[in-house]
Design a protein that fits this description.
Layout lengths: L2 H10 L9 E9 L10 E5 L3 E5 L5 E8 L1 E9 L2 E10 L3 E2 L2 E2 L8 E2 L7 E2 L7 E4 L1 H7 L4 H4 L6 E6 L3 E6 L9 E4 L2 E2 L19 E6 L3 H4 L6 E6 L9 E9 L3 E12 L2 E12 L8 E15 L2 E15 L4 E4 L2 E2 L15 E16 L4 E17 L17 E20 L3 E24 L3 E3 L2 E7 L8 E25 L2 E18 L5 E21 L3 E14 L4 E5 L2 E5 L4 E14 L2 E20 L5 E20 L4 E16 L19 E11 L2 E10 L2 E2 L9 E2 L2 E12 L2 E8 L7 E4 L5 E4 L4 E9 L1
Parallel strand pairs: 1-7, 1-8, 14-17
Antiparallel strand pairs: 1-4, 2-3, 2-5, 5-6, 9-10, 11-16, 12-13, 14-15, 16-17, 18-19, 18-49, 19-20, 20-21, 21-22, 22-25, 23-24, 23-48, 25-26, 26-27, 27-28, 28-31, 29-30, 31-32, 32-33, 33-34, 34-37, 35-36, 37-38, 38-39, 39-40, 40-41, 41-42, 42-45, 43-44, 45-46, 46-49, 47-48
């Protein structure tokens, strides 16, 4: 054997030799009643790695394994992770009887690898597929109702956001779809492109996560899974939903196993009139994936995701003392007739995995993302006496982005001592072009009649169209990251670091001025946990972490005194310190943490006129407490509850030398957010009811005394009934038809109303 091969084997670990004895591991997976579990995931770690799914009889079998020491894990939806370990030199049987689990016990988003959520030193929450199906979740606030401390809002029927810990920008929380980032070059994610009914599961990691995921993960990371689950046989589902506001939706998915992989696809087609006049929405979504294992050294996956959304532009409501003015209802729409937005997303990915040894996995993934969007504005209405235009704007954007990541993972050890090391190199580059026409001499309007102009009455509501200005933006990011997670008996330690170097340039067709910006950022994360109590049925752990996140901001070109000048805003940086407890019992999963987070150089706007803004950097601080509880009760009952307290304030916010908003609470940030619910399963029926509460919030943070929006409480319920492979779900949200403001709008004294009462019926066929 050559010296090179001897060195390679020493580095990679134990290589399975051809002369080793062949071992077969097989067994049966059963639930607490002793019934077989179909589709349980069985992972084998040792001299080689293998993953299979149990069949209808609960049986699994993995053959052709070299002799050695193996760790075997088994887990299924609604059932807890179980584990066994041993030295195997001959065929062996390992049966597992799984306990019921109130919460999902395996999570991937925290460190890009599947791991037991008990030993992840961050606040993590997962929503399983059965929970989404049994409640017929149709919006993000329904799908994420069990996650503590979240707010949900939609601006103008298109821009959907998830707010956590006082961070409300769509670029503050990284969104992943089946492992691929869903973001524009500025970090924002258009969640409207992902229909909630397509989700197969959700994972949410709180706190800065840039050390693993890079830019935009400054407040956390959430991952949506849209591909149907794997299994040993052909499976799929078809569904039809009829709901309020003229909503019709068809959804389906299929999984086709092959001898060395699988093919899977899922799609959604929906049409809705919307609850506001002229604010209908059409959505078409498709994802297709294929896996093939050529050998242990090469597994290939190809995935395509396409989404097209056309939405009529909704209106906002002018507010006084936090309440709607002039008797304006949620149905009223004062926008310009025919104004709409159209987004089209195409994402193609390829991933190659190579099992170099029993301990080392090398992977390379590539993604191409094209996002085209036609945006038309025009809903700017504010309380009188100001007279304003309807703020019509129009831009056509095209974004092409490319992401290539090479990652090495090393996993070794036993149930009592494990080492997990991850390192990677990422190249992220793209361009963003935007064409925007100018408009002049637009009519102005003054309430309460926002349809009758007070000036320029003969002009089009858009104004007089002028020439277009084209903006060109380019961004290149090169990153290296590494993380090591060591677990020894009762103690776990995690440390990670990411280095991002980025270059970006903005220019416009009407000027020769360019705004370049180059910088680099270090994003560390450290964490640890210690088991305070370990028993057969009870685990109590204390955990803590410190993490940083960053997001580069787009340079701007502003006109001051008729001179175009670059405006360079420093990258946003968050620093989060957190400590908490996690409890896992046979019938209870609970976690709670206290945190102190600062956001430095966050972009904030200050209104200097009816249509003018000044953009500046600000520093904010959020201190708070978050807690979650899930429990299984007797007689088929289960329950969940969560509560969050947030104290989010500006530490420094001075838009001008004479104006100081330091100390203001962050806009739309309540102190109290809570939710709870109960599920009762009996034979073929499953009944779910819950309540969600959001406390009082300041409408703005860039005025001396902001309006305060009153708190609101929403009630929802669903009833599921199964007959063989057919499931029917009746559901209702906002059952009291509460009129509330869910989101603000561009630092104005106006807001976006929340969805009225919604009733739906869904029929789902599973095969």
């Amino acid at each position: 054997m050559s010296p090179f091969r001897i060195f390679l084997l020493a580095v990679l670990g134990v290589w399975p030799a051809a002369s080793q004895t062949s071992v077969t591991i097989e067994g049966t997976i059963r639930d607490p009643q002793g019934l077989p579990v179909d589709g349980a995931a069985v992972d084998v770690h040792g001299p080689v790695r293998r993953t299979v799914r149990s069949g209808e009889s609960g049986r699994y079998r993995i053959g052709g394994l070299p002799a050695g020491r193996y760790r075997i894990t088994a887990v299924a939806d609604g059932l807890r992770l179980r584990e066994a370990e041993g030295d195997f030199t001959a065929p062996v049987t390992r049966d597992f009887q799984l306990d019921l689990a109130p919460a999902v016990s395996v999570i991937e988003t925290a460190s890009k690898t599947r791991e037991d959520s008990l030993r992840v030193p961050f606040l993590v929450t997962a929503v399983a597929r059965p929970e989404l199906r049994d409640t017929a979740a149709a919006s993000f606030d329904e799908a994420l109702r069990t996650v503590a401390g979240l707010q949900h809002g939609t601006q103008g029927n298109f821009f959907t956001r998830v707010t956590t810990r006082g961070l409300r920008d769509t670029a503050d929380v990284l969104t992943l779809v089946d492992g691929v980032p869903l973001r524009q070059l500025n970090g924002s994610a258009d969640l409207a492109m992902i229909p909630v009914t397509a989700l197969q599961g959700v994972e949410f990691v709180k706190g800065s996560a840039s050390a693993m995921h890079g830019r935009s993960a400054i407040g956390g990371a959430m991952q949506f899974y849209t591909l149907p689950p794997t299994g040993p046989r052909l499976s799929g589902e078809l569904a039809y939903t009829r709901a309020s506001f003229g909503t019709n939706e068809a959804q389906g998915g299929i999984h086709v196993p092959t001898r060395r992989g699988r093919v899977a696809a899922a799609g959604v087609a929906s049409r809705s009139n919307g609850y506001q006049q002229g604010a209908g929405r059409d959505n078409n979504f498709l994802t297709v994936s294929g896996d093939h294992a050529f050998s242990p050294l090469l597994n290939l996956r190809f995935t395509y995701l396409g989404s097209d959304v056309r939405a009529g532009r909704g209106s906002i409501v002018p507010l006084m003392n936090g309440r709607p003015m002039f008797g304006i209802t949620r149905r009223d729409n004062f926008g310009i007739p025919g104004v709409y937005m159209d987004g089209e997303l195409h994402s193609a990915s390829a991933k190659a995995d190579s099992q170099l040894s029993s301990r080392v996995l090398l992977s390379n993934s590539f993604n191409f993302n094209r996002y085209d969007r036609l945006f038309q504005g025009g809903i700017t209405i504010v309380p009188p006496p100001a007279a304003v235009t309807k703020g019509y704007s129009e831009n056509l954007t095209r974004q092409d982005s490319y992401l290539n990541e090479t990652m090495l993972q090393w996993d070794a050890g036993s149930a009592s001592r494990r080492n997990s090391f991850t390192a990677g190199l990422t190249f992220d580059w793209g361009n963003f072009d935007q064409s925007s026409p100018t408009f002049t001499a637009a009519p102005t309007y003054r309430g309460p009649d926002y349809n009758r102009p007070v000036t320029n009455a003969a002009s089009d509501p858009r104004g007089v169209r002028g020439p277009s200005v084209v903006s060109y933006f380019n961004q290149d990011v090169t990153s290296f990251f590494a993380q090591h997670h060591f677990v020894w008996k009762r103690i776990g330690i995690l440390g990670g670091l990411r280095i991002d170097s980025f270059d970006q340039t903005l220019s416009r067709s009407d000027t020769g001025v360019r705004a370049p910006f180059s910088a680099s950022r270090f994003s560390p994360r450290i964490g640890g946990d210690v088991a305070l109590l370990r028993r057969e049925s009870v685990d109590l752990l204390a955990f803590g972490n410190f993490a940083e996140g960053f997001r580069p901001q787009l340079p701007g070109l502003n006109t001051l005194n008729n001179v175009v000048v670059p405006q360079l805003l420093r990258p946003e940086v968050t620093r989060n310190v957190e400590a908490g407890l996690r409890l896992r019992h046979r019938a209870i999963d609970a976690q709670a943490s206290v945190f102190n987070m600062r956001k430095i150089d966050g972009q904030r706007s200050f209104r200097s006129g009816p249509e003018d803004f000044i953009f500046v950097n600000a520093t904010t601080r959020v201190r708070g407490f978050e807690s979650e509880l899930r429990a299984l009760l007797p007689a088929g009952l289960s329950t969940y509850g969560n509560y969050a307290f947030h104290n989010a304030r500006h530490i420094e916010f001075r838009p001008t030398p004479t104006t100081n908003f330091s100390g203001n609470r962050l806009r739309m940030s309540p102190r109290h957010i809570a939710g709870s619910g109960v599920t009762w399963a009996w034979r073929r029926f499953a009944w779910n009811a819950g309540v969600a509460h959001v406390g009082a919030r300041p409408l703005r943070d860039n005025v001396i005394a902001s309006q305060i929006l009153p708190s609101y409480t929403l009630i929802h319920a669903s009833l599921s009934f199964r007959v063989g492979p057919v499931q029917t779900v009746f559901s209702g949200t906002n059952l009291t038809d509460r009129y509330y403001i869910a989101d603000d709008f561009s630092a104005q004294d106006a807001g976006n109303p929340g969805v009225p009462r919604r009733i739906s019926i869904q029929v789902r066929y599973k095969f």
